[in-house]
Amino acid sequence: MEYRKLGKSGLWVSALSLGSWLTFGKQVNEEVAETLMQTAYESGVNFFDNAEIYSRGQSELVMGRILKKMNWDRSTYLVSSKVFWGGDKPNQTGLMRKHIIEACEGALRRFQLDYLDMFFCHRYDQRTPIEETVRAMETLIQQGKILYWGTSEWNGAEIMEANMHARLLNMTPPAMEQPHYNMFTRNAVELDYLRPYHYGMGTTIWSPLASGLLSGKYNEGKVPANSRLAMEGLEWLRDSVLLEDRLDKVRQLSALALEIGVTMPQLAIAWCLKNPNVSTVILGASNVSQLKENLNSLSVLPLLTEEIITNIEAILQNKPTRTWYV
Ligand code: NDP
């Protein structure tokens, strides 16, 4: 396993980590979840990602029970949660002090842990003053309930707003952002975050396989019954992911992967790892063979020569570019 610094913070995070969205507490049973965490940990993964909204708290409950059972040394792993969507009543959703404090305490109870290593603001909240959010995060840090706080799916200006307020208040700025990043979703990570990177921001990127599209399993235009895009209630995801022009590109990428002797998921994950602003790629897996295949992506990294990257860009045709120069 390779370990990378979380931006300019002191924290080392494994280049590959494991997430639980749609799997823990939903698609996979607890036995499978345990095998996934154990396999990941034994391969050197030190970061497990979660959120209050994942299966409405079930995902944290499952992960917490597994961590308790495994009894790993607490200093050898990192756990996150995310605050935003806590419920439908006023003050159950958003980044107001009340919900931030209650969400953190709720996550700690469900995990059966004393502190979270990372705590993310799952979305930007336009209706709460940023100063209130920054102060609430600082309170949790001072109480020892969280170690690092960050954002998820905020734009560069929003992240800088939080960063500047924290600095003005002599408080802790956000250390990391959790953005969507893969071969098809590139703008934020490759362009919009250049300013926050100057201020030391790290990234824990999500959906490296675009929910499985970049595994190549949908190349024939069929949706396997046991796959994420066949899950009930996820029609919105299937419709936003299974686009014909993207499928066409994945077919070409799959041929390229074959040529260099790697699998399509490994090529897609290694491509994310190639970006030095990516601190960790959060993997998703619904079974252990997928996870093992994906964990091998690190060994594919040296194969991504300049020539191969150029070939990939020629297929993707979506490299974010500036229309002006500085
Ligand atoms: P991916 O895009 O990598 O999708 C993972 C899914 O793809 C798996 O569950 C599996 O689904 C399929 N898959 C994975 N590997 C393979 C393989 N080798 N062969 C075939 N199919 C494969 O990542 P996720 O979307 O799961 O995101 C990863 C993590 O990021 C989440 O668990 C979560 O922690 C975080 N996240 C954060 C968000 C945020 O807003 N901050 C939003 C979304 C995710 P299946 O077998 O069912 O088809």
Q: How would you sum up this structure, described in words?
A:
With 326 residues, this protein is α/β, with parallel strands linked by helices. The protein has a domain of 222 residues: NADP-dependent oxidoreductase domain (TIM Barrel, Alpha-Beta Barrel). The protein has twelve helices and ten strands. An eight-stranded parallel β-barrel has the order 3-4-5-6-7-8-9-10, surrounded by five helices. Strand 1 and strand 2 form a beta hairpin. Bound molecules: NADPH dihydro-nicotinamide-adenine-dinucleotide phosphate. NADPH dihydro-nicotinamide-adenine-dinucleotide phosphate binds next to strand 10 and helix 11.
Nearest-angstrom radius of gyration?
19 Å
* CATH homologous superfamily (4th level) name of the domain at 3-212 and 275-286: NADP-dependent oxidoreductase domain
Strand content: 5-15%
Helix/strand order? EEEHEHEHEHEHEHHEHHHEHH
Structural class: alpha/beta
Instruction: Tell me the overall shape.
Output: globular
CATH class of the domain at 3-212 and 275-286: Alpha Beta
Q: Ions, cofactors, ligands: which are bound?
A: NADPH dihydro-nicotinamide-adenine-dinucleotide phosphate
Per-chain topology:
Elements lengths: L2 E3 L6 E3 L1 E4 L10 H13 L4 E3 L8 H13 L7 E6 L13 H15 L4 E6 L8 H13 L3 E6 L4 H13 L7 E2 L9 H6 L1 H5 L3 E4 L29 H7 L2 H17 L3 H10 L6 E4 L4 H8 L10 H11 L10
Bound molecules: NADPH dihydro-nicotinamide-adenine-dinucleotide phosphate (NDP).
